[in-house]
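Session log. Operator J.P. requested a structure for one protein chain; no other inputs attached. Running the standard single-chain path with C-alpha coordinate output.
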Amino acid sequence: MAGTSRRRHSRLAFRSDGPPGRGDLHRLRTLNPSTRYDPRMRSPPRPSTSVGLSFLLAGCAATPRVAEPIQWSTKISDAIATVGRRSVENDGIVGLSIGVAVHGQVVYADGFGHADATRSVPVDARTIYDVASIGKQFTAVAVLQLAEQGVLSLDQRVREFVPGLPPHFPDATLDHLLRHTSGFVAGELDEFAPPADYARPRYGQELLSDVELRTGRIAFPEGESWIYCNPGYLALGLVVEAASGQRYDRYVREHLLDRLSSHSMLVCEDAPLPAGSQRLHRTADGVAPLPHIDMTAWGGQGSICSNVLDLLQWASALRDGRLIVEDSLRAMRSPSTVRGEHSTARVPYGMAQRLGVFGDAGHRKVGHTGTFEGGSAALYSYPEVGLDIAVLANTRGDGTPHAMTIEREIARLVLGVSSVQPPAAGRPLTETERRAIEGYYSDSRTFEARIDGGELLALRDGEEQERLLHLGGMRFQRADAPDVFEWFLLDGDTAGWWVYSISGSYVEVLRRQPEGAAR
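Structure written below.
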Protein backbone atom coordinates (compact mmCIF):
# COMPACT_ATOMS: atom_id res chain seq x y z
CA MET A 1 0.00 0.00 0.00
CA ALA A 2 1.69 3.19 -1.15
CA GLY A 3 1.67 6.18 1.16
CA THR A 4 1.74 9.86 0.41
CA SER A 5 3.87 12.55 1.96
CA ARG A 6 3.17 12.82 5.67
CA ARG A 7 2.84 16.58 5.83
CA ARG A 8 1.31 17.62 2.54
CA HIS A 9 -2.26 17.56 1.29
CA SER A 10 -3.04 16.23 -2.17
CA ARG A 11 -4.92 18.71 -4.30
CA LEU A 12 -5.81 15.94 -6.72
CA ALA A 13 -7.40 13.99 -3.87
CA PHE A 14 -9.37 17.08 -2.89
CA ARG A 15 -10.55 17.45 -6.48
CA SER A 16 -11.54 13.80 -6.76
CA ASP A 17 -13.10 13.23 -3.34
CA GLY A 18 -14.23 16.71 -2.39
CA PRO A 19 -12.61 18.98 0.19
CA PRO A 20 -11.32 17.13 3.29
CA GLY A 21 -13.86 17.23 5.04
CA ARG A 22 -12.94 10.67 27.82
CA GLY A 23 -15.55 12.11 29.14
CA ASP A 24 -14.10 11.84 32.72
CA LEU A 25 -12.68 13.99 35.51
CA HIS A 26 -10.65 15.99 32.98
CA ARG A 27 -13.65 16.87 30.83
CA LEU A 28 -14.19 20.61 30.37
CA ARG A 29 -17.51 21.96 29.20
CA THR A 30 -18.92 25.45 29.00
CA LEU A 31 -17.47 27.43 31.89
CA ASN A 32 -20.19 30.06 32.06
CA PRO A 33 -22.86 29.80 29.35
CA SER A 34 -24.22 33.27 30.06
CA THR A 35 -20.88 35.11 29.84
CA ARG A 36 -20.70 37.70 27.06
CA TYR A 37 -17.28 38.20 25.46
CA ASP A 38 -16.64 41.66 24.03
CA PRO A 39 -13.97 42.44 21.45
CA ARG A 40 -10.96 44.11 23.05
CA MET A 41 -9.88 46.14 20.07
CA ARG A 42 -11.49 48.87 18.03
CA SER A 43 -11.92 48.08 14.36
CA PRO A 44 -12.87 50.09 11.29
CA PRO A 45 -16.43 50.07 9.91
CA ARG A 46 -17.77 46.73 8.85
CA PRO A 47 -17.54 46.07 5.11
CA SER A 48 -20.06 44.11 3.11
CA THR A 49 -19.77 40.40 2.35
CA SER A 50 -18.26 41.21 -1.02
CA VAL A 51 -15.39 43.01 0.69
CA GLY A 52 -14.73 39.94 2.82
CA LEU A 53 -14.63 37.79 -0.28
CA SER A 54 -12.27 40.18 -2.04
CA PHE A 55 -10.00 39.94 1.03
CA LEU A 56 -9.46 36.28 0.21
CA LEU A 57 -9.30 36.59 -3.53
CA ALA A 58 -6.89 39.51 -3.45
CA GLY A 59 -4.50 37.81 -1.05
CA CYS A 60 -5.80 39.21 2.23
CA ALA A 61 -5.70 42.89 1.37
CA ALA A 62 -9.14 44.09 2.44
CA THR A 63 -9.97 45.93 5.66
CA PRO A 64 -10.97 43.55 8.51
CA ARG A 65 -14.64 43.61 9.46
CA VAL A 66 -15.97 44.81 12.78
CA ALA A 67 -17.06 41.70 14.63
CA GLU A 68 -20.14 41.16 16.74
CA PRO A 69 -19.32 39.98 20.28
CA ILE A 70 -19.51 36.21 20.68
CA GLN A 71 -22.49 35.22 22.83
CA TRP A 72 -21.66 31.78 24.21
CA SER A 73 -24.48 29.43 25.16
CA THR A 74 -25.21 25.85 26.09
CA LYS A 75 -26.85 25.57 22.66
CA ILE A 76 -23.46 26.13 21.00
CA SER A 77 -21.79 23.65 23.36
CA ASP A 78 -24.43 21.03 22.64
CA ALA A 79 -24.11 21.59 18.89
CA ILE A 80 -20.32 21.14 19.04
CA ALA A 81 -20.78 17.94 21.05
CA THR A 82 -23.13 16.67 18.35
CA VAL A 83 -20.42 17.29 15.74
CA GLY A 84 -17.89 15.41 17.86
CA ARG A 85 -20.14 12.42 18.46
CA ARG A 86 -21.13 12.20 14.80
CA SER A 87 -17.46 12.27 13.74
CA VAL A 88 -16.64 9.15 15.78
CA GLU A 89 -19.96 7.32 15.52
CA ASN A 90 -20.72 7.84 11.83
CA ASP A 91 -17.71 9.32 10.01
CA GLY A 92 -14.96 6.82 10.76
CA ILE A 93 -12.75 8.77 13.18
CA VAL A 94 -11.70 6.65 16.16
CA GLY A 95 -10.69 9.51 18.49
CA LEU A 96 -11.21 13.27 18.36
CA SER A 97 -10.64 16.24 20.68
CA ILE A 98 -12.09 19.73 20.27
CA GLY A 99 -11.15 22.94 22.09
CA VAL A 100 -12.52 26.48 21.77
CA ALA A 101 -11.29 29.67 23.46
CA VAL A 102 -12.54 33.27 23.33
CA HIS A 103 -9.98 35.97 24.15
CA GLY A 104 -7.75 33.32 25.69
CA GLN A 105 -10.41 31.80 27.96
CA VAL A 106 -11.34 28.19 27.27
CA VAL A 107 -15.11 27.96 26.81
CA TYR A 108 -15.30 24.41 25.47
CA ALA A 109 -12.98 21.39 25.51
CA ASP A 110 -13.90 17.74 25.23
CA GLY A 111 -12.93 14.43 23.69
CA PHE A 112 -14.89 11.82 21.75
CA GLY A 113 -14.14 8.21 20.98
CA HIS A 114 -10.91 6.38 21.77
CA ALA A 115 -7.15 6.77 21.56
CA ASP A 116 -6.41 3.25 20.30
CA ALA A 117 -7.50 0.85 17.60
CA THR A 118 -8.93 -1.61 20.15
CA ARG A 119 -11.08 1.19 21.64
CA SER A 120 -9.99 0.51 25.19
CA VAL A 121 -8.63 3.98 26.06
CA PRO A 122 -11.13 6.87 25.88
CA VAL A 123 -9.91 10.31 24.81
CA ASP A 124 -10.59 13.64 26.49
CA ALA A 125 -9.46 17.25 26.16
CA ARG A 126 -6.05 16.35 27.62
CA THR A 127 -5.26 13.50 25.23
CA ILE A 128 -2.01 14.22 23.37
CA TYR A 129 -1.86 13.87 19.57
CA ASP A 130 0.75 14.31 16.87
CA VAL A 131 -0.19 17.74 15.46
CA ALA A 132 1.95 17.31 12.32
CA SER A 133 2.47 20.52 10.32
CA ILE A 134 0.98 22.77 12.98
CA GLY A 135 4.51 22.29 14.36
CA LYS A 136 5.84 24.48 11.54
CA GLN A 137 4.54 27.46 13.51
CA PHE A 138 7.02 26.62 16.28
CA THR A 139 9.91 26.58 13.81
CA ALA A 140 8.81 29.89 12.29
CA VAL A 141 8.55 31.51 15.72
CA ALA A 142 12.00 30.20 16.70
CA VAL A 143 13.54 31.73 13.55
CA LEU A 144 11.73 35.03 14.15
CA GLN A 145 12.95 35.11 17.77
CA LEU A 146 16.54 34.70 16.56
CA ALA A 147 15.98 37.44 13.97
CA GLU A 148 14.69 39.77 16.70
CA GLN A 149 17.90 39.11 18.65
CA GLY A 150 20.04 39.94 15.60
CA VAL A 151 21.48 36.43 15.53
CA LEU A 152 20.31 35.94 11.95
CA SER A 153 18.55 37.79 9.13
CA LEU A 154 15.72 36.42 7.03
CA ASP A 155 17.64 37.58 3.94
CA GLN A 156 20.52 35.21 4.69
CA ARG A 157 20.96 32.06 2.63
CA VAL A 158 20.28 28.69 4.19
CA ARG A 159 23.74 27.25 3.39
CA GLU A 160 25.34 29.90 5.59
CA PHE A 161 23.90 27.82 8.43
CA VAL A 162 23.50 24.34 6.89
CA PRO A 163 26.32 23.83 4.38
CA GLY A 164 25.69 20.08 4.26
CA LEU A 165 22.39 20.37 2.37
CA PRO A 166 22.38 18.26 -0.82
CA PRO A 167 23.39 20.12 -4.00
CA HIS A 168 19.96 19.73 -5.60
CA PHE A 169 18.36 21.78 -2.79
CA PRO A 170 18.23 25.54 -3.52
CA ASP A 171 20.40 27.96 -1.52
CA ALA A 172 17.24 29.92 -0.75
CA THR A 173 16.84 32.74 1.74
CA LEU A 174 15.33 31.94 5.11
CA ASP A 175 12.35 34.10 4.15
CA HIS A 176 11.70 31.98 1.06
CA LEU A 177 11.86 28.80 3.13
CA LEU A 178 9.49 30.21 5.74
CA ARG A 179 7.02 31.17 3.02
CA HIS A 180 7.32 28.02 0.84
CA THR A 181 8.60 30.07 -2.11
CA SER A 182 12.00 28.35 -2.48
CA GLY A 183 10.85 26.52 -5.63
CA PHE A 184 11.70 23.06 -4.21
CA VAL A 185 9.25 20.19 -4.68
CA ALA A 186 9.54 17.58 -1.94
CA GLY A 187 9.80 13.89 -2.71
CA GLU A 188 7.41 11.33 -1.27
CA LEU A 189 7.72 9.31 1.93
CA ASP A 190 5.79 6.06 2.25
CA GLU A 191 4.52 6.14 5.82
CA PHE A 192 3.36 2.55 5.54
CA ALA A 193 6.93 1.37 4.81
CA PRO A 194 9.31 4.02 6.22
CA PRO A 195 13.11 3.56 6.12
CA ALA A 196 14.48 1.59 9.05
CA ASP A 197 16.38 4.56 10.50
CA TYR A 198 13.12 6.50 10.88
CA ALA A 199 12.29 4.25 13.85
CA ARG A 200 15.20 5.52 15.98
CA PRO A 201 15.99 9.00 17.33
CA ARG A 202 17.93 11.17 14.87
CA TYR A 203 19.18 14.68 15.45
CA GLY A 204 21.03 17.46 13.66
CA GLN A 205 22.86 16.51 10.46
CA GLU A 206 21.41 12.99 10.57
CA LEU A 207 18.13 14.54 9.35
CA LEU A 208 19.76 15.36 6.00
CA SER A 209 18.98 11.74 5.03
CA ASP A 210 15.30 12.73 4.97
CA VAL A 211 13.52 10.97 2.09
CA GLU A 212 11.53 14.01 0.97
CA LEU A 213 14.73 16.07 0.89
CA ARG A 214 16.85 13.47 -0.92
CA THR A 215 14.25 12.68 -3.59
CA GLY A 216 12.93 16.19 -4.21
CA ARG A 217 13.78 18.58 -7.02
CA ILE A 218 13.77 22.24 -7.96
CA ALA A 219 10.64 23.09 -9.96
CA PHE A 220 10.84 26.90 -10.06
CA PRO A 221 13.41 29.63 -9.47
CA GLU A 222 13.16 30.86 -5.88
CA GLY A 223 10.43 33.44 -5.36
CA GLU A 224 8.65 32.65 -8.63
CA SER A 225 5.84 30.54 -7.20
CA TRP A 226 4.49 28.96 -4.03
CA ILE A 227 4.65 25.25 -3.30
CA TYR A 228 4.36 23.59 0.12
CA CYS A 229 7.80 22.30 1.09
CA ASN A 230 8.45 20.08 4.11
CA PRO A 231 12.24 19.89 3.53
CA GLY A 232 12.37 23.68 3.70
CA TYR A 233 11.13 23.60 7.29
CA LEU A 234 13.38 20.64 8.08
CA ALA A 235 16.30 22.85 6.97
CA LEU A 236 14.96 25.75 9.08
CA GLY A 237 15.06 23.51 12.14
CA LEU A 238 18.78 23.00 11.44
CA VAL A 239 19.17 26.77 11.01
CA VAL A 240 17.75 27.21 14.52
CA GLU A 241 20.37 24.80 15.82
CA ALA A 242 23.26 26.50 14.03
CA ALA A 243 22.21 30.03 14.98
CA SER A 244 21.32 29.31 18.62
CA GLY A 245 23.94 26.70 19.47
CA GLN A 246 21.20 24.47 20.90
CA ARG A 247 19.64 21.30 19.60
CA TYR A 248 16.28 22.06 17.97
CA ASP A 249 14.14 20.30 20.56
CA ARG A 250 16.01 21.93 23.45
CA TYR A 251 15.67 25.40 21.94
CA VAL A 252 11.92 24.95 21.36
CA ARG A 253 11.38 23.61 24.86
CA GLU A 254 13.37 26.39 26.58
CA HIS A 255 12.35 29.41 24.51
CA LEU A 256 8.81 28.47 23.44
CA LEU A 257 7.18 25.77 25.55
CA ASP A 258 8.52 27.04 28.87
CA ARG A 259 6.91 30.42 28.15
CA LEU A 260 3.55 28.64 27.91
CA SER A 261 3.99 26.84 31.24
CA SER A 262 2.95 23.77 29.27
CA HIS A 263 3.21 20.49 31.11
CA SER A 264 2.02 18.20 28.33
CA MET A 265 3.22 19.68 25.02
CA LEU A 266 6.16 17.68 23.65
CA VAL A 267 8.80 18.31 20.99
CA CYS A 268 10.64 15.48 19.23
CA GLU A 269 9.11 12.92 21.56
CA ASP A 270 5.94 10.89 21.71
CA ALA A 271 3.26 10.44 24.36
CA PRO A 272 2.40 6.74 24.81
CA LEU A 273 -1.01 5.43 25.79
CA PRO A 274 -2.97 6.31 27.87
CA ALA A 275 -1.76 9.93 27.89
CA GLY A 276 -1.30 10.02 24.12
CA SER A 277 -3.15 8.71 21.10
CA GLN A 278 -2.14 6.15 18.52
CA ARG A 279 -1.85 7.17 14.86
CA LEU A 280 -4.51 5.19 13.02
CA HIS A 281 -5.24 4.57 9.37
CA ARG A 282 -8.61 3.34 8.16
CA THR A 283 -9.16 1.13 5.13
CA ALA A 284 -12.07 -1.00 3.95
CA ASP A 285 -10.63 -3.78 6.12
CA GLY A 286 -10.70 -1.77 9.35
CA VAL A 287 -8.40 0.43 11.44
CA ALA A 288 -4.76 -0.22 12.30
CA PRO A 289 -1.87 1.78 13.78
CA LEU A 290 0.79 3.17 11.45
CA PRO A 291 4.32 1.75 11.61
CA HIS A 292 6.41 3.54 14.23
CA ILE A 293 8.31 6.65 13.16
CA ASP A 294 10.31 8.44 15.84
CA MET A 295 9.16 12.05 16.29
CA THR A 296 12.73 13.32 15.86
CA ALA A 297 12.47 12.36 12.17
CA TRP A 298 10.31 15.40 11.48
CA GLY A 299 12.52 18.04 13.08
CA GLY A 300 11.49 21.56 12.09
CA GLN A 301 8.77 20.41 9.71
CA GLY A 302 6.44 19.20 12.47
CA SER A 303 7.64 17.34 15.57
CA ILE A 304 5.18 18.68 18.17
CA CYS A 305 2.71 16.57 20.14
CA SER A 306 -0.01 18.39 22.06
CA ASN A 307 -3.53 18.36 23.40
CA VAL A 308 -6.15 20.92 22.38
CA LEU A 309 -5.80 22.89 25.62
CA ASP A 310 -2.10 23.58 25.05
CA LEU A 311 -2.72 24.48 21.40
CA LEU A 312 -5.25 27.08 22.54
CA GLN A 313 -2.67 28.41 24.99
CA TRP A 314 -0.12 28.58 22.13
CA ALA A 315 -2.54 30.59 19.99
CA SER A 316 -3.11 33.03 22.84
CA ALA A 317 0.62 33.41 23.56
CA LEU A 318 1.35 34.05 19.90
CA ARG A 319 -1.26 36.80 19.82
CA ASP A 320 -0.40 38.55 23.10
CA GLY A 321 3.35 38.93 22.54
CA ARG A 322 4.73 36.29 24.88
CA LEU A 323 6.63 34.62 22.02
CA ILE A 324 7.46 37.26 19.40
CA VAL A 325 6.98 41.02 19.12
CA GLU A 326 4.08 42.58 17.24
CA ASP A 327 6.15 43.40 14.14
CA SER A 328 7.27 39.78 13.87
CA LEU A 329 3.69 38.52 14.20
CA ARG A 330 2.59 40.98 11.54
CA ALA A 331 5.29 39.68 9.19
CA MET A 332 4.38 36.09 10.04
CA ARG A 333 0.78 36.78 9.03
CA SER A 334 1.49 38.85 5.91
CA PRO A 335 0.83 37.38 2.45
CA SER A 336 3.79 36.05 0.48
CA THR A 337 4.92 37.74 -2.71
CA VAL A 338 5.72 35.77 -5.87
CA ARG A 339 7.49 37.32 -8.86
CA GLY A 340 6.80 36.48 -12.47
CA GLU A 341 8.30 37.72 -15.71
CA HIS A 342 6.22 40.90 -15.76
CA SER A 343 4.38 41.24 -12.44
CA THR A 344 4.35 40.35 -8.77
CA ALA A 345 1.40 38.83 -6.94
CA ARG A 346 0.41 37.96 -3.38
CA VAL A 347 -0.44 34.50 -2.10
CA PRO A 348 -2.60 33.99 1.06
CA TYR A 349 0.09 32.25 3.09
CA GLY A 350 2.52 33.85 5.53
CA MET A 351 5.16 32.07 7.61
CA ALA A 352 3.53 28.81 8.69
CA GLN A 353 0.22 30.68 8.61
CA ARG A 354 -2.62 30.09 6.18
CA LEU A 355 -4.53 33.32 5.58
CA GLY A 356 -8.05 33.96 4.40
CA VAL A 357 -11.61 34.86 5.24
CA PHE A 358 -14.43 32.67 6.42
CA GLY A 359 -18.15 32.62 5.80
CA ASP A 360 -20.64 35.10 4.44
CA ALA A 361 -19.69 37.69 7.08
CA GLY A 362 -16.05 37.77 5.99
CA HIS A 363 -14.27 36.89 9.23
CA ARG A 364 -10.47 37.04 8.91
CA LYS A 365 -8.92 33.64 9.57
CA VAL A 366 -5.29 32.61 10.28
CA GLY A 367 -3.73 29.34 11.34
CA HIS A 368 -2.55 25.99 10.05
CA THR A 369 -3.45 22.37 9.51
CA GLY A 370 -1.59 19.11 10.02
CA THR A 371 -2.02 16.05 7.84
CA PHE A 372 -0.50 12.58 7.74
CA GLU A 373 -1.65 9.02 7.18
CA GLY A 374 -2.47 8.53 10.87
CA GLY A 375 -4.47 11.64 11.72
CA SER A 376 -5.13 15.30 11.11
CA ALA A 377 -5.08 18.57 13.03
CA ALA A 378 -6.36 22.13 12.72
CA LEU A 379 -5.61 25.25 14.76
CA TYR A 380 -7.24 28.50 13.58
CA SER A 381 -7.74 31.96 15.00
CA TYR A 382 -10.30 34.61 14.09
CA PRO A 383 -8.49 37.76 15.31
CA GLU A 384 -11.35 40.25 15.17
CA VAL A 385 -13.41 38.22 17.63
CA GLY A 386 -10.57 36.67 19.64
CA LEU A 387 -11.74 33.18 18.72
CA ASP A 388 -9.37 30.17 18.65
CA ILE A 389 -10.42 26.66 17.62
CA ALA A 390 -8.30 23.50 17.92
CA VAL A 391 -9.35 20.12 16.49
CA LEU A 392 -7.22 16.96 16.71
CA ALA A 393 -8.15 13.61 15.15
CA ASN A 394 -6.26 10.31 15.29
CA THR A 395 -7.60 8.68 12.11
CA ARG A 396 -7.16 9.19 8.35
CA GLY A 397 -8.17 7.21 5.28
CA ASP A 398 -11.29 5.72 3.72
CA GLY A 399 -13.29 8.95 3.67
CA THR A 400 -12.69 10.09 7.26
CA PRO A 401 -13.14 13.88 7.53
CA HIS A 402 -10.10 16.08 7.99
CA ALA A 403 -9.84 18.09 11.21
CA MET A 404 -10.07 21.30 9.17
CA THR A 405 -13.50 20.27 7.90
CA ILE A 406 -14.66 19.80 11.49
CA GLU A 407 -13.04 23.11 12.49
CA ARG A 408 -15.00 24.97 9.81
CA GLU A 409 -18.25 23.41 11.02
CA ILE A 410 -17.50 24.49 14.59
CA ALA A 411 -16.60 28.01 13.42
CA ARG A 412 -19.99 28.28 11.72
CA LEU A 413 -21.74 27.27 14.93
CA VAL A 414 -19.80 29.74 17.08
CA LEU A 415 -19.87 32.67 14.67
CA GLY A 416 -23.39 32.03 13.36
CA VAL A 417 -22.30 32.33 9.73
CA SER A 418 -22.98 30.42 6.55
CA SER A 419 -20.87 29.64 3.52
CA VAL A 420 -20.74 32.26 0.79
CA GLN A 421 -23.41 30.89 -1.52
CA PRO A 422 -22.49 30.49 -5.19
CA PRO A 423 -24.55 32.14 -7.91
CA ALA A 424 -27.10 30.15 -9.89
CA ALA A 425 -24.86 30.38 -12.96
CA GLY A 426 -21.39 31.62 -13.75
CA ARG A 427 -20.87 35.04 -15.30
CA PRO A 428 -19.65 34.88 -18.91
CA LEU A 429 -15.98 35.67 -19.39
CA THR A 430 -14.71 38.08 -21.99
CA GLU A 431 -12.54 36.78 -24.78
CA THR A 432 -9.59 38.59 -23.20
CA GLU A 433 -10.19 36.82 -19.89
CA ARG A 434 -10.54 33.46 -21.60
CA ARG A 435 -7.25 33.89 -23.47
CA ALA A 436 -5.52 35.07 -20.30
CA ILE A 437 -6.63 32.00 -18.31
CA GLU A 438 -6.56 29.03 -20.65
CA GLY A 439 -3.39 26.97 -20.59
CA TYR A 440 -1.39 24.58 -18.43
CA TYR A 441 -0.30 25.18 -14.83
CA SER A 442 1.85 23.08 -12.54
CA ASP A 443 3.42 22.57 -9.13
CA SER A 444 4.46 18.93 -8.82
CA ARG A 445 1.55 18.00 -11.10
CA THR A 446 0.06 19.64 -14.16
CA PHE A 447 -3.52 20.84 -14.63
CA GLU A 448 -5.15 22.42 -17.65
CA ALA A 449 -7.48 25.40 -17.23
CA ARG A 450 -10.23 25.61 -19.82
CA ILE A 451 -13.21 27.96 -20.02
CA ASP A 452 -16.70 26.74 -20.92
CA GLY A 453 -19.11 29.69 -21.03
CA GLY A 454 -19.23 31.01 -17.47
CA GLU A 455 -17.40 28.05 -15.97
CA LEU A 456 -13.82 27.00 -15.33
CA LEU A 457 -12.90 23.41 -16.07
CA ALA A 458 -9.86 21.94 -14.32
CA LEU A 459 -8.49 18.96 -16.22
CA ARG A 460 -5.66 16.54 -15.57
CA ASP A 461 -4.44 14.23 -18.32
CA GLY A 462 -7.47 15.35 -20.31
CA GLU A 463 -9.97 14.26 -17.64
CA GLU A 464 -12.21 16.78 -15.91
CA GLN A 465 -11.42 17.08 -12.19
CA GLU A 466 -13.78 19.87 -11.22
CA ARG A 467 -15.97 22.63 -12.60
CA LEU A 468 -16.38 26.08 -11.02
CA LEU A 469 -18.67 29.07 -11.56
CA HIS A 470 -17.24 32.44 -12.58
CA LEU A 471 -17.92 35.18 -10.02
CA GLY A 472 -16.30 37.92 -12.09
CA GLY A 473 -12.75 39.20 -12.34
CA MET A 474 -11.32 35.72 -13.07
CA ARG A 475 -12.53 34.46 -9.65
CA PHE A 476 -14.39 31.16 -9.38
CA GLN A 477 -16.37 29.12 -6.82
CA ARG A 478 -17.43 25.48 -6.69
CA ALA A 479 -21.20 25.11 -6.61
CA ASP A 480 -21.03 21.66 -4.95
CA ALA A 481 -18.41 22.78 -2.40
CA PRO A 482 -18.95 26.50 -1.78
CA ASP A 483 -15.95 26.83 0.55
CA VAL A 484 -13.67 26.22 -2.47
CA PHE A 485 -12.54 29.36 -4.30
CA GLU A 486 -10.06 29.60 -7.13
CA TRP A 487 -8.68 32.63 -8.89
CA PHE A 488 -6.00 33.69 -11.34
CA LEU A 489 -3.28 36.29 -10.81
CA LEU A 490 -1.93 38.15 -13.82
CA ASP A 491 1.69 38.13 -14.91
CA GLY A 492 1.54 40.77 -17.60
CA ASP A 493 -1.35 40.16 -19.99
CA THR A 494 -1.84 36.50 -19.12
CA ALA A 495 -2.54 34.66 -15.90
CA GLY A 496 0.70 33.61 -14.24
CA TRP A 497 -0.66 31.80 -11.19
CA TRP A 498 -3.73 29.72 -10.41
CA VAL A 499 -4.68 29.85 -6.72
CA TYR A 500 -6.84 27.26 -4.95
CA SER A 501 -8.26 27.94 -1.47
CA ILE A 502 -10.67 26.25 0.91
CA SER A 503 -12.13 29.16 2.87
CA GLY A 504 -8.83 30.17 4.45
CA SER A 505 -8.13 26.61 5.65
CA TYR A 506 -5.96 25.51 2.76
CA VAL A 507 -4.13 26.96 -0.21
CA GLU A 508 -2.27 25.72 -3.28
CA VAL A 509 -0.72 27.64 -6.14
CA LEU A 510 0.00 26.45 -9.67
CA ARG A 511 2.44 28.30 -11.94
CA ARG A 512 1.62 28.80 -15.60
CA GLN A 513 3.76 26.71 -17.93
CA PRO A 514 5.33 28.33 -20.99
CA GLU A 515 3.85 27.45 -24.36
CA GLY A 516 5.38 24.24 -25.66
CA ALA A 517 6.73 23.14 -22.28
CA ALA A 518 6.96 19.39 -21.67
CA ARG A 519 3.96 18.04 -19.76
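Operator note: The longest helix spans residues 74-89.
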